[in-house]
Amino acid sequence: MPGFPADTYLQFFVPGLIVMLAVFSPVYSGFDVLSDIDHGVLEKMLVTPVNRYAIIIGSAIDWATQLVMQVLIIFGIAYVMGARIATGIGGILLTIIIVVLLGLGFFGLSNALVLATKKAEPLVVIGNLMTLPLMFLSSIMVPSQFAPEWIRIIMKLNPVNYAVEAARPLFLEGYNWPQIATSLTVLGVFATIGIISATLTLRKFGN
């Protein structure tokens, strides 16, 4: 198509697919917390002197490690299929940082919701209502310049789009440092909000 930013759709879509991993996987991470609640594991941890931040951060590190492994697998499969990343190893590492920050935000919000409700139903409903709109109201599937004006306005409020817009140039052209700096700032704030929300909710849960 005229104006399409990549030679193949595969090259264009791979960074979007990697970002999708950072959306769908952490949104439902709250089910692990729900399992700990149902089996009494969380209550036993809360009576120990362990720091509440340590509980959330430890769980977040475990989830982030799994995400990194999934991203590396996608990189490997995409490479075999012919996709390449213009920025090499540095771009791969930066992409991982971008998607981990995005995922931490969703991870924290998912855990906060489960800790607040202690039920699976709200997580399923809100997760479904949140993930698909955030995906379609971003440039994961199509370039942002192809989207209607009202969608481009929403994209400016969508953390998923900031991750895509920072990661995609790493595959297609090189380092877009202004966009990377903006995206890392937004995603860093999003991750911080998520982790703090989960930790504050955990404190209330233990009282």
Question: What would you say this structure looks like, in words?
Answer:
This protein has about 210 residues and is mainly alpha-helical. It has one domain. Helices cover about 75% and strands about 0% of the residues. The chain has helices at about 10-25, 30-40, 40-45, 50-80, 90-115, 120-135, 150-155, 160-170, 175-205. Helix 1 runs parallel beside helix 5, helix 1 (about 10-25) packs antiparallel against helix 6 (about 120-135) and helix 5 (about 90-115) runs antiparallel to helix 8. The model has no long low-confidence stretch (mean pLDDT about 90).
Summarize the helices and strands and which ones pair or pack:
Layout: H1 9-27, H2 30-38, H3 41-46, H4 52-81, H5 88-117, H6 121-136, H7 149-155, H8 159-172, H9 177-205
